[in-house]
Design brief:
The complex is a heterodimer.
Chain A (H helix, E strand, L loop, with lengths): L7 E6 L5 H9 L16 E4 L11 E4 L11 H15 L5 E7 L3 H18 L3 E6 L1 H6 L6 H8 L2 E4 L8 H10 L15 H16 L7 H11 L4 H19 L2 H21 L4 H18 L2 H17 L1 H15 L7 H9 L1 H7 L6 H10 L8 H12 L4 E2 L4 E2 H26 L2 H4 L5 E4 L7 H35 L11 H13 L6 H9 L6 H13 L8 H7 L4 H13 L4 H11 L3 H28 L1
Parallel strand pairs in A: 1-3, 1-4, 4-5, 5-6
Antiparallel strand pairs in A: 2-3, 7-8
Helix pairs in contact in A: 3-7, 9-12, 9-18, 10-11, 11-20, 11-23, 12-20, 14-15, 15-26, 16-18, 17-18, 17-24, 17-25, 18-25, 20-23, 21-22, 22-23, 25-27, 26-27
Chain B lengths: L10 E7 L5 H10 L6 E6 L7 E5 L2 E5 L1 H4 L2 E3 L1
Antiparallel strand pairs in B: 1-2, 1-5, 2-3, 3-4
The chains are: A alpha/beta, B alpha+beta.
Bound molecules: guanosine-5'-diphosphate.
The site of guanosine-5'-diphosphate has 23 residues of chain A, from helix 1 and helix 4.
Chain lengths: ~625, ~70
C-alpha cells in the first residue's frame, strides 16, 4: 500500500472513543475535539504529518462517531451511508477502527460490525485500542495479542493523548493489505444478539478487568446532577459564561480599539486630504474597525463553550435540561445544538442531527435561529455600551453591562422556547416523545491547545468570512453616503435620499433613517450593522477626533426606547443568509427557511414596536 | 420491576424488554450493554423527573423514564 501515491485511510469508532484526538494527532490539523457523544457530524480529512519520507501522501478521513452500523437516527444514517459509500466506491485503502480499551465490550460490538462490513468489501482493517494510558495508570492489563489472534486482525494498543503506539499504528497501516477474514466462532445465537455475545466473550477473555474512574465521576455527578445544587450550578455556569464574554474580553477589546485609533491617527494624516483620506478614515477605520473590536468576544465565547464541551459538563447539562425542555416540546438533546447556536447558528443546525427524532429535530431548527448567536453580539454590545454605564456593583463581580447582556440573551432564549412550546402544542404528532438515551462521558480536564486553536480558527473565520461581506457593504455604503457632495452632508447624499424612503418603516420605533439603512444592510449578516453604522457616523463626523461608535450613538441622542427596540429586533429577526442556506441544505427544501424568515421578521417588527412603546411609557 | 424503579445506589439484572419497545431501540440498548442477564447499577437519580444515570460495564448512560420503564429488571 505504501506504493500507492495517495492512500486514503478511514477512521471509524463509537462516540467518545478518542477518534477525533487520534485524527488530530495523525494529521496535525486541529479539528475540534469535543467531549460530547457524537459531536463530529461532517467528515473531516487531513494529510498525515508523519516525519518519515513518503507518508505525506496518506490522507486520513475522520468519519462521524456512531454506536453501530445499524442506524436509528438521521445523523447516524448520514454517517453510516457515507462510510458504506466510500467502501462501495473503493475509495478506502484501509480502515482504522478506534475502540476505547477501557470499555472494550462496547467497542467490540461496533468493531465486529466493521470487520464484517470490511470483509464484505475487501478492505483491510486495523483495530486501534485507544486510552491505553488510562489502563496503565490503573495497572490494568489488556491482552492485545490474544484479541488480535482471536479476530485475526491487528490490534494495536495506543494512546491518542500521550502518543504511545502511534508510530506502530502508522507502520502497520503502511503494511496493511489483507482484508479481514470472516470471524469464526462456535457460538450459536439469534442474529440480533450474536455480535453482542461475541463481544462479551472476547472482552471477558482479553479485556481489562475492574472498574475505572467511575468513583470520581459519580462524586462529581452527585454534585452537578443534585436535585437543587445541580440546577443552581447550571445557572451559575451559564451566568458566568455570559459575564465572561464581557469581563474577560473587555481589556482585549479596549486594546484593539486603542490600536485602531492609534493606527488611524498615524495613517490618516499621511494621506493627502481628499477622497482617499476620507475613505480611509470613514470606511476603513470607521466601518471595518468598528467590527474588528468584537473579535475578542467571539474568541472568548468559543473558548468557554469549548471548555464546557471538553470537560464533559455539557452532557450533564443535557440531562438537567431534559425535563424542562420537554415542557417546551424539545428534548435534552436539543440543548447542545441550541447552546452551539449561541456561538453560531450554523454549527448549531449541524449539531441538531444528533437529535434522533425527526419532529424534535424540526422543532430544534425553529429554536436555533432565535438563540443569541455571536453575530448579534457586536450589535448588542454596541447598544448596551451606548446606554448602560460600565460601572460595576458588588466589588466588580457584577457588571451592569454584563447583566444587560444576560437579559437580552435570556430574552432570545425565551423567545425560542416560546415558539417551540406553541408550535409543538399545535399538533398531536409534534407532542409525542422519543426515548432519551445519552452516554455520559467521564469528566476530563480540557485539552487547552486544541480549544485555543479552535477559538482562534473561529475568530479568523469570522474576520475573513464576515469581513468580506462587511468590506463590500462598507464600501458601497460609503460611496452612496459620500457622494455627490463629498461628505459635506450625509443627509443630502444618495444614501440620505434613499434613507428617506425607508425612514417610515423604522420611524415607529424611534429610529432615524441611518439606523434603517444599517438594519437593511444587516439582513446579509447581522454584524454588517455595526460596520454600516460606523461608516455613516464616520462621514457625518468628518474632521472630528475618533471616538468610539458607542459614544457617537450616545451623542446622537437616540432615545432609550429606540435602543431597546433595536435590541429586541435583532434578537428575533433572522438576518443571516448563511443560516437560511444551511437550513435549506439540511431540510432539503426552501420551505422551512422561507417560513422562518417571513414569520421571524414580522415577529421581530411587532416585538420591537411593543418594546419601544413599553420603554417610552415607563421612562 | 423496571429499570426506572431502581433507586440511586442499587443494582439489578436485566430480565427482559417489554414488548412495547421499538425494535430499533431494543437493538441499540443491547449494543450499549443493556441486555438480559447484564447487571445494571443506578448511579444517580437527580429526581424531579430528570433522566437517571445507569452504569453498564465501565460506561454511564442517562435514560429517561420513557425508555427505562420498558426494561424489566429482577
Ligand atoms: N486519557 C486519554 N484520554 C483520551 C485519549 N484519547 C482521547 N481522549 C479524551 O477523550 C475525550 C473524547 O475524545 P474525542 O477525540 O472527542 O472522541 P470522539 O468522540 O471519538 O471523537 C476527549 O476529552 C479526549 O481528550 C487517550 O488516549 N487517553
Amino acid at each position: 500500500m505504501s506504493s500507492n501515491p495517495d492512500s486514503k485511510i478511514a477512521l471509524v469508532g463509537s462516540p467518545n472513543s478518542g477518534k477525533s484526538l487520534l485524527f488530530n494527532r495523525l494529521t496535525g490539523l486541529n479539528q475540534k475535539v469535543a467531549n460530547f457523544p457524537g459531536i463530529t457530524v461532517d467528515i473531516a480529512s487531513g494529510q498525515s504529518v508523519d516525519a518519515s519520507a513518503d507518508s505525506s501522501s496518506v490522507q486520513y478521513l475522520d468519519f462521524p462517531g456512531v454506536y453501530s452500523l445499524q442506524a436509528i437516527s438521521g445523523e447516524e444514517k448520514i454517517a453510516i451511508q457515507g462510510f458504506i459509500n466510500a467502501l462501495e466506491e473503493n475509495l478506502l485503502d484501509a480502515v482504522v477502527c478506534v475502540v476505547d480499551s477501557t470499555r472494550l465490550e462496547k467497542g467490540l460490538i461496533f468493531a465486529l460490525q466493521v470487520l464484517e462490513t470490511c470483509h464484505k468489501y475487501n478492505v483491510p482493517v486495523l483495530i486501534a485500542a485507544n486510552m491505553i494510558d488510562v489502563l496503565d495508570q490503573h495497572s490494568m492489563q489488556f491482552k492485545d495479542q490474544g484479541l488480535s489472534e482471536a479476530l485475526s486482525v491487528k490490534v494495536l494498543p495506543i494512546s491518542a493523548k500521550t502518543g504511545t503506539g502511534l508510530n506502530e499504528l502508522r507502520n502497520a497501516l503502511a503494511d496493511a493489505s489483507v482484508p479481514p477474514a470472516k470471524f469464526q466462532t462456535d457460538i450459536i445465537a439469534s442474529d440480533e444478539s450474536i455480535n453482542h455475545l461475541h463481544a462479551q466473550q472476547l472482552a471477558q477473555k482479553y479485556g481489562p478487568k475492574g472498574e475505572l474512574l467511575i468513583n470520581t465521576q459519580t462524586r462529581l455527578d452527585s454534585f452537578f446532577l443534585h436535585s437543587w445544587l445541580g440546577g443552581l450550578s447550571f445557572f451559575i455556569i451559564m451566568y458566568l459564561l455570559f459575564q465572561s464574554i464581557f469581563t474577560w474580553a473587555a481589556p482585549v477589546m479596549d486594546a484593539v480599539e486603542a490600536m485602531i485609533q492609534w493606527l488611524a491617527s498615524v495613517v490618516v494624516p499621511v494621506i493627502p486630504a481628499g477622497v482617499a483620506s476620507d475613505f480611509t478614515s470613514d470606511a476603513l477605520f470607521g466601518g471595518i474597525g468598528a467590527f474588528l473590536v468584537f473579535v475578542p468576544q467571539i474568541f472568548v465565547l468559543t473558548l468557554v463553550i469549548g471548555i464546557l464541551e471538553d470537560s464533559g459538563y455539557l452532557a450533564r447539562a443535557a440531562v438537567i435540561c431534559h425535563k424542562p425542555l420537554r415542557f417546551f416540546g424539545l428534548t435534552g438533546k436539543s440543548f447542545i445544538p441550541m447552546l452551539s447556536g449561541v456561538a453560531c447558528a450554523i454549527p448549531g443546525i449541524y449539531a441538531a442531527r444528533t437529535v434522533d427524532s425527526t419532529r424534535k429535530r424540526w422543532l430544534t431548527y425553529l429554536a436555533i435561529p432565535l438563540m443569541p448567536c455571536s453575530a448579534r453580539l457586536p450589535v448588542y454590545s454596541l447598544i448596551i455600551s451606548a446606554f448602560i454605564p460600565a460601572q460595576k456593583a458588588m466589588g466588580g463581580l457584577l457588571g451592569w453591562q454584563g447583566l444587560a447582556m444576560f437579559a437580552i440573551y435570556l430574552f432570545g432564549i425565551l423567545c425560542a422556547l416560546l415558539v417551540t412550546a406553541l408550535v409543538s402544542r399545535s399538533s398531536e404528532e409534534l407532542r409525542t416523545d422519543l426515548p432519551f438515551v445519552l452516554e455520559m462521558p467521564p469528566y476530563r480536564l480540557p485539552s487547552w491547545r486544541p480549544l485555543i486553536t479552535h477559538g482562534l480558527h473561529r475568530s479568523q473565520q469570522f474576520v475573513t468570512k464576515a469581513g468580506k461581506v462587511i468590506f463590500a457593504v462598507t464600501v458601497i455604503i460609503w460611496i452612496l453616503g459620500y457622494f455627490p457632495n463629498y461628505g459635506a452632508s450625509l443627509g443630502d447624499s444618495w444614501l440620505g435620499t434613499m434613507g428617506q424612503w425607508i425612514e417610515p418603516v423604522f420611524a415607529p420605533f424611534g429610529l432615524d433613517w441611518r439606523y434603517g439603512v444599517a438594519i437593511l444592510s444587516s439582513f446579509l449578516a447581522r454584524e454588517v450593522f455595526v460596520g454600516t453604522l460606523g461608516t455613516m457616523f464616520g462621514i457625518d463626523g468628518a474632521g472630528e477626533n475618533f471616538t468610539s461608535l458607542a459614544q457617537q450613538i450616545q451623542e446622537s441622542g437616540l432615545p432609550l426606547g429606540a435602543g431597546a427596540a433595536l435590541l429586541v429586533f435583532f434578537a428575533i429577526a433572522l438576518q443571516c443568509v448563511s443560516t437560511l442556506a444551511v437550513l435549506q441544505r439540511e431540510t432539503g427544501s426552501w420551505r422551512l427557511p422561507a417560513q422562518l424568515f417571513i414569520s421571524y421578521s414580522i415577529f421581530a417588527y411587532a416585538a420591537a414596536l411593543g418594546m419601544f412603546h413599553l420603554v417610552e411609557f415607563l421612562v | 420491576m423496571t429499570l426506572w424503579d431502581l433507586t440511586q445506589g442499587t443494582s439489578a439484572k436485566v430480565s427482559r424488554f417489554k414488548s412495547s419497545i421499538e425494535s430499533g431501540y431494543r437493538t441499540r440498548l443491547s449494543e450499549l450493554g443493556f441486555h438480559p442477564g447484564e447487571q445494571i447499577a443506578c448511579v444517580m437519580s437527580p429526581g424531579m423527573g430528570a433522566p437517571k444515570l445507569y452504569r453498564v460495564n465501565n460506561t454511564v448512560y442517562s435514560l429517561d423514564d420513557s425508555i427505562a420503564s420498558l426494561i424489566e429488571v429482577a
